[in-house]
Protein backbone atom coordinates (compact mmCIF):
# COMPACT_ATOMS: atom_id res chain seq x y z
CA UNK A 1 0.00 0.00 0.00
CA UNK A 2 1.24 3.51 -0.85
CA UNK A 3 1.41 6.43 1.57
CA UNK A 4 -1.29 9.05 1.04
CA UNK A 5 -1.28 12.79 1.77
CA UNK A 6 -3.68 15.71 1.75
CA UNK A 7 -2.91 18.40 -0.85
CA UNK A 8 -5.57 20.94 0.00
CA UNK A 9 -8.68 21.52 2.09
CA UNK A 10 -11.70 23.80 1.95
CA UNK A 11 -14.93 24.49 3.77
CA UNK A 12 -17.77 26.97 3.58
CA UNK A 13 -18.71 29.02 6.56
CA UNK A 14 -20.97 26.79 8.62
CA UNK A 15 -24.38 28.17 9.55
CA UNK A 16 -27.56 28.98 7.70
CA UNK A 17 -27.47 29.02 3.90
CA UNK A 18 -31.05 29.23 2.62
CA UNK A 19 -29.74 30.71 -0.62
CA UNK A 20 -27.18 28.02 -1.46
CA UNK A 21 -27.99 24.51 -2.72
CA UNK A 22 -26.18 21.29 -1.79
CA UNK A 23 -24.26 21.67 -5.05
CA UNK A 24 -23.39 25.34 -4.36
CA UNK A 25 -22.06 24.49 -0.90
CA UNK A 26 -19.90 21.62 -2.10
CA UNK A 27 -18.52 23.59 -5.06
CA UNK A 28 -17.56 26.52 -2.83
CA UNK A 29 -15.62 24.23 -0.48
CA UNK A 30 -14.10 22.28 -3.36
CA UNK A 31 -12.60 25.30 -5.09
CA UNK A 32 -10.98 26.48 -1.86
CA UNK A 33 -9.29 23.07 -1.61
CA UNK A 34 -8.45 23.08 -5.34
CA UNK A 35 -6.83 26.53 -5.21
CA UNK A 36 -4.21 25.37 -2.72
CA UNK A 37 -3.52 21.97 -4.31
CA UNK A 38 -1.39 23.11 -7.27
CA UNK A 39 -3.06 20.74 -9.72
CA UNK A 40 -5.23 21.09 -12.80
CA UNK A 41 -8.83 19.96 -12.79
CA UNK A 42 -8.05 17.17 -15.25
CA UNK A 43 -5.66 15.64 -12.68
CA UNK A 44 -8.60 14.62 -10.48
CA UNK A 45 -9.59 11.06 -11.30
CA UNK A 46 -12.61 10.46 -9.05
CA UNK A 47 -14.94 12.14 -6.57
CA UNK A 48 -15.89 10.67 -3.20
CA UNK A 49 -18.84 12.66 -1.86
CA UNK A 50 -20.66 12.36 1.47
CA UNK A 51 -24.28 13.33 2.10
CA UNK A 52 -26.78 11.93 4.57
CA UNK A 53 -30.31 13.18 3.94
CA UNK A 54 -30.42 15.18 0.71
CA UNK A 55 -33.65 13.37 -0.19
CA UNK A 56 -35.42 14.72 2.89
CA UNK A 57 -33.96 18.23 3.13
CA UNK A 58 -33.68 19.11 -0.56
CA UNK A 59 -35.66 16.40 -2.34
CA UNK A 60 -32.40 15.37 -4.03
CA UNK A 61 -30.69 11.99 -4.34
CA UNK A 62 -28.17 10.59 -6.82
CA UNK A 63 -26.05 13.57 -5.81
CA UNK A 64 -22.47 12.68 -6.70
CA UNK A 65 -22.82 13.15 -10.46
CA UNK A 66 -24.30 16.60 -10.00
CA UNK A 67 -21.39 17.52 -7.73
CA UNK A 68 -18.76 16.32 -10.21
CA UNK A 69 -20.49 18.05 -13.11
CA UNK A 70 -20.74 21.33 -11.19
CA UNK A 71 -16.99 21.52 -10.55
CA UNK A 72 -16.11 20.76 -14.18
CA UNK A 73 -15.40 17.06 -13.81
CA UNK A 74 -18.19 15.61 -15.92
CA UNK A 75 -17.51 11.98 -16.70
CA UNK A 76 -15.23 10.95 -13.82
CA UNK A 77 -16.44 8.21 -11.46
CA UNK A 78 -18.38 10.03 -8.74
CA UNK A 79 -19.66 8.10 -5.75
CA UNK A 80 -21.92 9.18 -2.90
CA UNK A 81 -21.23 7.73 0.53
CA UNK A 82 -23.87 7.62 3.23
CA UNK A 83 -22.92 6.77 6.79
CA UNK A 84 -25.18 9.21 8.63
CA UNK A 85 -23.09 11.87 10.40
CA UNK A 86 -19.88 10.09 9.32
CA UNK A 87 -20.76 10.18 5.60
CA UNK A 88 -17.81 12.25 4.41
CA UNK A 89 -15.38 10.49 6.77
CA UNK A 90 -16.41 7.21 5.15
CA UNK A 91 -15.92 8.88 1.74
CA UNK A 92 -12.51 10.17 2.82
CA UNK A 93 -11.38 6.79 4.12
CA UNK A 94 -12.50 5.01 0.94
CA UNK A 95 -10.69 7.63 -1.15
CA UNK A 96 -7.51 7.08 0.88
CA UNK A 97 -7.79 3.33 0.39
CA UNK A 98 -8.21 3.70 -3.39
CA UNK A 99 -5.13 5.94 -3.65
CA UNK A 100 -3.13 3.75 -1.27
CA UNK A 101 -3.99 0.71 -3.38
CA UNK A 102 -2.64 2.48 -6.47
CA UNK A 103 -5.98 2.60 -8.26
CA UNK A 104 -5.99 6.42 -8.41
CA UNK A 105 -3.23 9.02 -7.91
CA UNK A 106 -5.30 12.13 -7.13
CA UNK A 107 -8.95 12.29 -6.02
CA UNK A 108 -11.38 14.82 -4.58
CA UNK A 109 -13.39 14.22 -1.41
CA UNK A 110 -16.08 16.25 0.33
CA UNK A 111 -19.62 16.60 1.49
CA UNK A 112 -22.51 19.00 1.89
CA UNK A 113 -25.75 19.10 3.87
CA UNK A 114 -28.58 21.54 4.64
CA UNK A 115 -30.10 20.75 8.03
CA UNK A 116 -30.57 24.27 9.39
CA UNK A 117 -32.64 25.47 6.44
CA UNK A 118 -34.74 22.28 6.59
CA UNK A 119 -36.16 23.39 9.96
CA UNK A 120 -36.30 21.62 13.34
CA UNK A 121 -39.12 19.11 12.70
CA UNK A 122 -37.87 17.87 9.31
CA UNK A 123 -34.28 18.09 10.51
CA UNK A 124 -35.01 16.07 13.64
CA UNK A 125 -36.90 13.44 11.61
CA UNK A 126 -34.14 13.34 9.00
CA UNK A 127 -31.47 12.79 11.67
CA UNK A 128 -33.67 10.16 13.30
CA UNK A 129 -33.46 8.08 10.10
CA UNK A 130 -30.11 7.00 11.54
CA UNK A 131 -31.70 5.14 14.47
CA UNK A 132 -33.21 1.68 13.95
CA UNK A 133 -36.01 2.40 11.48
CA UNK A 134 -38.38 -0.21 12.90
CA UNK A 135 -37.78 -0.85 16.58
CA UNK A 136 -36.32 2.49 17.80
CA UNK A 137 -38.04 5.15 15.73
CA UNK A 138 -41.46 3.75 16.63
CA UNK A 139 -41.02 5.11 20.17
CA UNK A 140 -40.02 8.52 18.76
CA UNK A 141 -36.34 8.14 19.64
CA UNK A 142 -34.38 11.20 18.48
CA UNK A 143 -30.64 11.84 18.42
CA UNK A 144 -30.64 14.02 21.51
CA UNK A 145 -32.66 11.10 22.92
CA UNK A 146 -29.94 8.57 22.09
CA UNK A 147 -27.32 10.54 23.99
CA UNK A 148 -29.70 11.40 26.79
CA UNK A 149 -30.14 7.64 27.29
CA UNK A 150 -26.36 7.32 27.29
CA UNK A 151 -25.93 10.18 29.80
CA UNK A 152 -28.29 8.64 32.36
CA UNK A 153 -26.71 5.21 31.89
CA UNK A 154 -23.22 6.74 32.29
CA UNK A 155 -24.22 8.46 35.54
CA UNK A 156 -25.72 5.25 36.88
CA UNK A 157 -22.90 2.94 35.78
CA UNK A 158 -20.07 5.10 37.14
CA UNK A 159 -22.06 6.14 40.23
CA UNK A 160 -21.93 9.86 39.51
CA UNK A 161 -24.86 11.97 40.77
CA UNK A 162 -26.69 13.10 37.61
CA UNK A 163 -26.43 16.79 38.54
CA UNK A 164 -22.67 16.44 38.95
CA UNK A 165 -22.36 14.76 35.55
CA UNK A 166 -24.54 17.46 33.98
CA UNK A 167 -22.14 20.13 35.25
CA UNK A 168 -19.16 18.35 33.72
CA UNK A 169 -21.11 17.88 30.47
CA UNK A 170 -21.86 21.60 30.50
CA UNK A 171 -18.11 22.27 30.69
CA UNK A 172 -17.76 20.56 27.29
CA UNK A 173 -20.26 23.02 25.83
CA UNK A 174 -18.53 26.00 27.50
CA UNK A 175 -15.13 24.86 26.15
CA UNK A 176 -16.28 24.12 22.61
CA UNK A 177 -18.31 27.31 22.32
CA UNK A 178 -15.27 29.27 23.54
CA UNK A 179 -13.22 27.81 20.67
CA UNK A 180 -16.02 28.01 18.11
CA UNK A 181 -16.58 31.69 18.88
CA UNK A 182 -13.12 32.59 17.51
CA UNK A 183 -13.24 30.30 14.46
CA UNK A 184 -14.37 32.45 11.49
CA UNK A 185 -15.79 29.37 9.71
CA UNK A 186 -17.90 28.36 12.72
CA UNK A 187 -21.68 28.73 12.96
CA UNK A 188 -21.28 30.51 16.30
CA UNK A 189 -18.35 32.74 15.28
CA UNK A 190 -18.45 35.76 17.56
CA UNK A 191 -21.22 34.23 19.66
CA UNK A 192 -21.57 32.26 22.92
CA UNK A 193 -17.83 32.53 23.62
CA UNK A 194 -18.31 33.36 27.29
CA UNK A 195 -20.96 30.82 28.25
CA UNK A 196 -21.22 29.76 31.89
CA UNK A 197 -22.02 26.28 33.16
CA UNK A 198 -25.32 27.65 34.53
CA UNK A 199 -26.29 28.90 31.05
CA UNK A 200 -25.99 25.36 29.71
CA UNK A 201 -27.84 23.79 32.64
CA UNK A 202 -30.65 26.33 32.45
CA UNK A 203 -31.19 26.40 28.70
CA UNK A 204 -34.29 24.77 27.21
CA UNK A 205 -34.68 21.04 27.92
CA UNK A 206 -34.57 19.06 24.66
CA UNK A 207 -34.41 15.46 25.87
CA UNK A 208 -33.73 15.12 29.59
CA UNK A 209 -31.05 15.55 30.83
CA UNK A 210 -29.78 17.24 27.64
CA UNK A 211 -30.54 20.93 27.20
CA UNK A 212 -30.29 22.95 23.99
CA UNK A 213 -26.70 23.95 24.83
CA UNK A 214 -25.74 20.29 25.38
CA UNK A 215 -26.58 19.76 21.69
CA UNK A 216 -24.75 20.72 18.53
CA UNK A 217 -26.83 22.94 16.24
CA UNK A 218 -28.55 22.14 12.95
CA UNK A 219 -26.22 23.43 10.23
CA UNK A 220 -25.89 24.04 6.50
CA UNK A 221 -22.41 23.73 5.01
CA UNK A 222 -19.91 22.07 2.73
CA UNK A 223 -16.37 20.72 3.01
CA UNK A 224 -13.76 19.32 0.65
CA UNK A 225 -10.25 17.92 0.42
CA UNK A 226 -7.97 16.77 -2.35
CA UNK A 227 -5.67 13.84 -1.65
CA UNK A 228 -2.84 12.23 -3.57
CA UNK A 229 -0.22 9.53 -3.36
CA UNK A 230 2.48 10.87 -1.02
CA UNK A 231 5.24 10.80 -3.66
CA UNK A 232 3.10 12.95 -5.94
CA UNK A 233 1.99 15.24 -3.10
CA UNK A 234 5.57 16.02 -2.16
CA UNK A 235 6.17 17.43 -5.65
CA UNK A 236 3.02 19.54 -5.55
CA UNK A 237 2.73 21.24 -2.17
CA UNK A 238 5.13 22.58 0.46
CA UNK A 239 3.58 20.83 3.40
CA UNK A 240 1.65 17.65 2.63
CA UNK A 241 -0.23 16.28 5.62
CA UNK A 242 0.05 12.50 5.66
CA UNK A 243 -2.81 10.12 6.40
CA UNK A 244 -1.05 7.73 8.75
CA UNK A 245 -3.85 5.41 9.75
CA UNK A 246 -7.58 4.92 9.41
CA UNK A 247 -10.14 2.67 11.02
CA UNK A 248 -13.83 1.97 10.64
CA UNK A 249 -16.38 -0.16 12.46
CA UNK A 250 -20.12 -0.79 12.67
CA UNK A 251 -22.96 -1.71 15.03
CA UNK A 252 -26.71 -2.36 15.06
CA UNK A 253 -29.33 -0.60 17.18
CA UNK A 254 -28.82 0.76 20.68
CA UNK A 255 -30.86 -2.10 22.14
CA UNK A 256 -28.45 -4.63 20.59
CA UNK A 257 -25.46 -2.80 22.08
CA UNK A 258 -27.08 -2.69 25.53
CA UNK A 259 -24.80 -1.22 28.22
CA UNK A 260 -21.99 -0.95 25.66
CA UNK A 261 -23.51 2.29 24.37
CA UNK A 262 -21.46 4.11 27.01
CA UNK A 263 -18.34 2.21 25.97
CA UNK A 264 -18.84 2.85 22.22
CA UNK A 265 -17.29 -0.47 21.23
CA UNK A 266 -17.31 0.28 17.46
CA UNK A 267 -15.29 3.42 18.21
CA UNK A 268 -12.84 1.42 20.29
CA UNK A 269 -12.40 -0.97 17.35
CA UNK A 270 -12.05 1.81 14.75
CA UNK A 271 -9.54 3.72 16.88
CA UNK A 272 -7.49 0.59 17.53
CA UNK A 273 -7.47 -0.14 13.79
CA UNK A 274 -6.22 3.39 13.07
CA UNK A 275 -3.54 3.24 15.79
CA UNK A 276 -2.34 -0.15 14.52
CA UNK A 277 -2.08 1.07 10.94
CA UNK A 278 -0.22 4.20 12.08
CA UNK A 279 1.97 2.17 14.45
CA UNK A 280 1.04 4.67 17.14
CA UNK A 281 -0.60 4.79 20.57
CA UNK A 282 -2.86 7.47 22.11
CA UNK A 283 0.28 9.07 23.60
CA UNK A 284 1.45 10.01 20.09
CA UNK A 285 -1.60 12.19 19.43
CA UNK A 286 -1.17 15.94 20.04
CA UNK A 287 -4.85 16.89 19.69
CA UNK A 288 -8.16 15.46 18.45
CA UNK A 289 -11.20 16.67 16.55
CA UNK A 290 -13.99 14.57 18.04
CA UNK A 291 -17.64 13.98 17.20
CA UNK A 292 -19.20 16.05 20.00
CA UNK A 293 -22.75 15.95 18.63
CA UNK A 294 -23.72 16.22 22.32
CA UNK A 295 -21.64 17.07 25.38
CA UNK A 296 -21.79 13.52 26.75
CA UNK A 297 -20.74 12.22 23.30
CA UNK A 298 -17.37 13.97 23.58
CA UNK A 299 -16.77 12.45 26.99
CA UNK A 300 -17.64 8.92 25.85
CA UNK A 301 -15.52 9.35 22.70
CA UNK A 302 -12.34 10.33 24.54
CA UNK A 303 -12.66 7.18 26.65
CA UNK A 304 -13.43 4.76 23.80
CA UNK A 305 -10.55 6.10 21.69
CA UNK A 306 -8.20 5.15 24.52
CA UNK A 307 -7.24 8.55 25.90
CA UNK A 308 -8.90 8.04 29.30
CA UNK A 309 -10.19 5.09 31.31
CA UNK A 310 -13.90 4.36 31.08
CA UNK A 311 -15.77 6.63 33.47
CA UNK A 312 -12.89 9.14 33.66
CA UNK A 313 -13.51 11.29 30.58
CA UNK A 314 -15.83 13.62 32.48
CA UNK A 315 -13.14 14.42 35.03
CA UNK A 316 -10.63 15.14 32.23
CA UNK A 317 -12.99 17.88 31.01
CA UNK A 318 -13.50 19.23 34.52
CA UNK A 319 -9.73 19.30 35.17
CA UNK A 320 -8.92 21.11 31.91
CA UNK A 321 -7.03 18.18 30.37
CA UNK A 322 -9.05 18.58 27.15
CA UNK A 323 -8.62 22.36 26.95
CA UNK A 324 -6.34 23.83 24.32
CA UNK A 325 -3.51 24.22 26.86
CA UNK A 326 -4.16 20.81 28.43
CA UNK A 327 -2.46 17.47 27.73
CA UNK A 328 -5.03 16.49 25.10
CA UNK A 329 -6.75 19.44 23.41
CA UNK A 330 -10.17 18.26 22.21
CA UNK A 331 -11.99 20.16 19.46
CA UNK A 332 -9.84 23.30 19.19
CA UNK A 333 -11.95 24.28 16.15
CA UNK A 334 -15.09 24.39 18.31
CA UNK A 335 -16.22 20.87 17.49
CA UNK A 336 -19.73 20.16 16.29
CA UNK A 337 -21.10 22.17 19.21
CA UNK A 338 -19.26 25.39 18.44
CA UNK A 339 -18.51 25.04 14.74
CA UNK A 340 -21.77 23.42 13.64
CA UNK A 341 -22.73 20.03 12.22
CA UNK A 342 -23.74 19.91 8.54
CA UNK A 343 -23.87 16.13 8.88
CA UNK A 344 -22.51 14.93 5.52
CA UNK A 345 -19.88 17.68 5.51
CA UNK A 346 -18.74 17.25 9.11
CA UNK A 347 -16.09 14.52 8.70
CA UNK A 348 -14.10 16.35 6.05
CA UNK A 349 -14.46 19.60 8.01
CA UNK A 350 -12.61 17.83 10.82
CA UNK A 351 -9.91 16.96 8.28
CA UNK A 352 -9.88 20.64 7.28
CA UNK A 353 -9.23 21.73 10.87
CA UNK A 354 -6.56 19.10 11.44
CA UNK A 355 -4.71 19.95 8.22
CA UNK A 356 -4.81 23.70 8.95
CA UNK A 357 -3.58 23.12 12.50
CA UNK A 358 -0.75 20.82 11.48
CA UNK A 359 0.37 23.30 8.80
CA UNK A 360 0.39 26.03 11.43
CA UNK A 361 -2.34 27.96 9.62
CA UNK A 362 -5.01 27.77 12.30
CA UNK A 363 -4.36 31.26 13.64
CA UNK A 364 -7.38 31.56 15.92
CA UNK A 365 -6.76 28.61 18.22
CA UNK A 366 -3.32 27.19 17.55
CA UNK A 367 -2.37 23.96 19.32
CA UNK A 368 1.26 24.51 20.27
CA UNK A 369 3.80 22.28 18.49
CA UNK A 370 1.13 19.96 17.09
CA UNK A 371 2.56 17.42 14.64
CA UNK A 372 0.10 14.53 14.83
CA UNK A 373 -3.67 14.62 15.27
CA UNK A 374 -6.70 12.37 15.09
CA UNK A 375 -10.28 12.71 13.87
CA UNK A 376 -13.33 10.86 15.16
CA UNK A 377 -16.66 10.79 13.35
CA UNK A 378 -19.73 8.96 14.56
CA UNK A 379 -22.62 7.99 12.32
CA UNK A 380 -25.95 7.17 13.94
CA UNK A 381 -26.14 5.33 17.25
CA UNK A 382 -22.62 3.93 16.70
CA UNK A 383 -23.67 2.25 13.43
CA UNK A 384 -20.79 3.85 11.52
CA UNK A 385 -17.58 4.90 13.21
CA UNK A 386 -14.48 6.35 11.54
CA UNK A 387 -11.17 7.33 13.15
CA UNK A 388 -8.22 8.75 11.21
CA UNK A 389 -4.70 9.81 12.17
CA UNK A 390 -2.84 12.61 10.37
CA UNK A 391 0.76 13.77 10.72
CA UNK A 392 3.29 16.13 9.19
CA UNK A 393 5.72 13.18 9.33
CA UNK A 394 5.50 10.59 6.59
CA UNK A 395 6.75 7.60 8.64
CA UNK B 1 -39.98 -13.82 11.83
CA UNK B 2 -41.36 -10.64 10.27
CA UNK B 3 -41.19 -7.30 12.13
CA UNK B 4 -44.99 -7.01 12.08
CA UNK B 5 -45.28 -10.34 13.93
CA UNK B 6 -43.45 -8.80 16.88
CA UNK B 7 -45.79 -5.80 16.98
CA UNK B 8 -48.96 -7.83 16.35
CA UNK B 9 -48.08 -10.04 19.32
CA UNK B 10 -47.35 -6.94 21.41
CA UNK B 11 -50.89 -5.68 20.78
CA UNK B 12 -52.14 -9.00 22.17
CA UNK B 13 -50.05 -8.40 25.29
CA UNK B 14 -47.29 -10.85 24.33
CA UNK B 15 -43.58 -10.20 23.89
CA UNK B 16 -42.20 -12.56 21.25
CA UNK B 17 -38.52 -13.39 21.02
CA UNK B 18 -36.24 -16.12 19.78
CA UNK B 19 -34.39 -18.76 21.76
CA UNK B 20 -31.11 -19.93 20.29
CA UNK B 21 -31.01 -23.71 20.06
CA UNK B 22 -27.21 -23.59 20.00
CA UNK B 23 -26.18 -21.22 22.81
CA UNK B 24 -29.45 -20.95 24.74
CA UNK B 25 -29.59 -17.14 24.78
CA UNK B 26 -32.57 -15.01 23.78
CA UNK B 27 -32.87 -12.44 20.99
CA UNK B 28 -35.58 -9.76 20.98
CA UNK B 29 -36.82 -7.96 18.89
CA UNK B 30 -36.41 -10.72 16.28
CA UNK B 31 -33.36 -11.00 14.09
CA UNK B 32 -32.15 -13.39 11.35
CA UNK B 33 -29.26 -14.47 13.55
CA UNK B 34 -28.78 -15.06 17.30
CA UNK B 35 -27.70 -11.76 18.87
CA UNK B 36 -25.13 -13.58 21.01
CA UNK B 37 -23.56 -16.27 18.78
CA UNK B 38 -24.80 -15.57 15.25
CA UNK B 39 -26.54 -18.93 14.87
CA UNK B 40 -29.59 -19.22 12.62
CA UNK B 41 -30.91 -22.12 14.69
CA UNK B 42 -33.60 -20.02 16.41
CA UNK B 43 -36.99 -20.92 17.80
CA UNK B 44 -39.75 -18.35 18.29
CA UNK B 45 -40.85 -18.23 21.94
CA UNK B 46 -43.02 -16.06 24.15
CA UNK B 47 -40.98 -14.12 26.71
CA UNK B 48 -42.09 -13.12 30.20
CA UNK B 49 -42.82 -9.54 29.10
CA UNK B 50 -41.19 -8.23 32.26
CA UNK B 51 -37.93 -6.46 32.95
CA UNK B 52 -36.16 -3.46 34.48
CA UNK B 53 -35.62 0.08 33.24
CA UNK B 54 -31.93 0.58 32.43
CA UNK B 55 -32.11 4.15 31.12
CA UNK B 56 -34.68 6.70 29.88
CA UNK B 57 -35.20 10.23 28.59
CA UNK B 58 -38.18 12.53 28.33
CA UNK B 59 -38.23 14.01 24.83
CA UNK B 60 -39.63 17.53 24.47
CA UNK B 61 -38.57 18.20 20.87
CA UNK B 62 -40.03 15.47 18.67
CA UNK B 63 -39.45 14.69 15.01
CA UNK B 64 -42.01 15.44 12.32
CA UNK B 65 -44.74 12.79 12.63
CA UNK B 66 -44.33 12.51 16.42
CA UNK B 67 -44.85 16.09 17.62
CA UNK B 68 -48.47 15.51 18.75
CA UNK B 69 -47.23 12.85 21.17
CA UNK B 70 -44.54 14.99 22.89
CA UNK B 71 -43.46 15.14 25.60
CA UNK B 72 -42.95 11.38 25.85
CA UNK B 73 -40.46 9.27 27.77
CA UNK B 74 -38.34 6.81 25.78
CA UNK B 75 -36.69 4.04 27.78
CA UNK B 76 -34.51 1.00 27.31
CA UNK B 77 -35.69 -1.98 29.32
CA UNK B 78 -33.67 -5.12 30.00
CA UNK B 79 -36.07 -8.04 29.75
CA UNK B 80 -35.76 -10.81 32.33
CA UNK B 81 -34.46 -13.13 29.58
CA UNK B 82 -31.58 -10.72 28.77
CA UNK B 83 -32.45 -8.71 25.62
CA UNK B 84 -32.95 -4.92 25.81
CA UNK B 85 -35.85 -3.25 24.01
CA UNK B 86 -36.74 0.38 23.26
CA UNK B 87 -40.20 1.71 24.16
CA UNK B 88 -41.95 4.33 26.24
CA UNK B 89 -42.69 4.60 29.96
CA UNK B 90 -46.44 5.20 30.39
CA UNK B 91 -46.08 8.00 32.96
CA UNK B 92 -46.62 11.75 32.40
CA UNK B 93 -43.40 13.73 31.88
CA UNK B 94 -43.71 15.57 35.23
CA UNK B 95 -43.88 12.31 37.19
CA UNK B 96 -40.87 10.97 35.34
CA UNK B 97 -38.85 14.11 36.16
CA UNK B 98 -39.88 13.82 39.81
CA UNK B 99 -38.62 10.24 40.03
CA UNK B 100 -35.44 11.03 38.07
CA UNK B 101 -32.60 8.53 38.21
CA UNK B 102 -34.59 6.44 40.73
CA UNK B 103 -36.56 5.08 37.76
CA UNK B 104 -33.47 3.16 36.72
CA UNK B 105 -33.84 -0.36 38.07
CA UNK B 106 -37.63 -0.11 38.42
CA UNK B 107 -39.53 -3.24 37.34
CA UNK B 108 -41.95 -2.92 34.43
CA UNK B 109 -44.44 -4.96 32.42
CA UNK B 110 -44.44 -4.56 28.63
CA UNK B 111 -47.54 -4.05 26.49
CA UNK B 112 -48.22 -2.63 23.03
CA UNK B 113 -50.07 0.56 22.13
CA UNK B 114 -51.18 1.59 18.65
CA UNK B 115 -50.37 5.06 17.25
CA UNK B 116 -51.03 6.60 13.81
CA UNK B 117 -48.24 5.75 11.41
CA UNK B 118 -46.18 8.44 9.68
CA UNK B 119 -44.95 8.76 6.07
CA UNK B 120 -41.52 7.25 6.69
CA UNK B 121 -42.46 4.41 9.04
CA UNK B 122 -42.16 0.91 7.45
CA UNK B 123 -45.67 -0.18 8.53
CA UNK B 124 -47.99 2.04 6.50
CA UNK B 125 -51.10 0.95 8.44
CA UNK B 126 -50.15 1.55 12.03
CA UNK B 127 -47.25 2.16 14.38
CA UNK B 128 -47.07 0.06 17.54
CA UNK B 129 -45.02 1.29 20.50
CA UNK B 130 -43.80 -1.03 23.26
CA UNK B 131 -45.10 0.56 26.48
CA UNK B 132 -43.57 0.04 29.92
CA UNK B 133 -45.90 0.01 32.93
CA UNK B 134 -44.33 0.26 36.38
CA UNK B 135 -45.05 -2.78 38.59
CA UNK B 136 -45.93 -2.59 42.27
UniProtKB/TrEMBL annotation, chain A:
GO terms for biological process: isoprenoid biosynthetic process. Residues 4-229 form the Thiolase N-terminal domain. Pfam families: Thiolase_C_1, Thiolase_N. Keywords: Isoprene biosynthesis. Residues 249-391 form the Thiolase C-terminal domain. InterPro entries: Thiolase, Thiolase-like, Thiolase_C_2, Thiolase_N. The keyword Ligase does not apply. One of its GO terms (molecular function) is acyltransferase activity, transferring groups other than amino-acyl groups. This is 3-ketoacyl-CoA thiolase.
Automatic annotation (TrEMBL), chain B:
SUPFAM superfamilies: Nucleic acid-binding proteins. InterPro entries: ChsH2_C, ChsH2_Znr, NA-bd_OB-fold, Thioester_dehydratase-like. Residues 45-111 form the ChsH2 C-terminal OB-fold domain. Residues 7-43 form the ChsH2 rubredoxin-like zinc ribbon domain. It comes from the Archaea. Transmembrane segments: none annotated. This is Zn-ribbon domain-containing OB-fold protein. It comes from Archaeoglobus fulgidus.
Amino acid sequence: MRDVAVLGVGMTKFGRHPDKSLVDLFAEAFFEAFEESNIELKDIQALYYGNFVGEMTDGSGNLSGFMADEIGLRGIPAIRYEGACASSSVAFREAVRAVAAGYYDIVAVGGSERLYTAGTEIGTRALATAVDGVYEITAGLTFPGVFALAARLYAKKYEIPLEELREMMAMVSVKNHKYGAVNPKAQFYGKLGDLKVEDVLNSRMISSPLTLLDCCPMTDGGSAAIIAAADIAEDLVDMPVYVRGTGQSSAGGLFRQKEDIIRAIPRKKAAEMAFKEAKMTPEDIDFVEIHDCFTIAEIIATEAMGFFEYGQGCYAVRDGVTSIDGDLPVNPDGGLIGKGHPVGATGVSQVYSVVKQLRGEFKENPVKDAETAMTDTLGGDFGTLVNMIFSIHRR
Amino acid sequence: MRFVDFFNALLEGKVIGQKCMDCGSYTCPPKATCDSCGSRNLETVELSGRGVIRTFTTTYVAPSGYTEEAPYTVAMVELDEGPWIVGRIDLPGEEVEKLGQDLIGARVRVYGKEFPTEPFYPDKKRRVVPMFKLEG
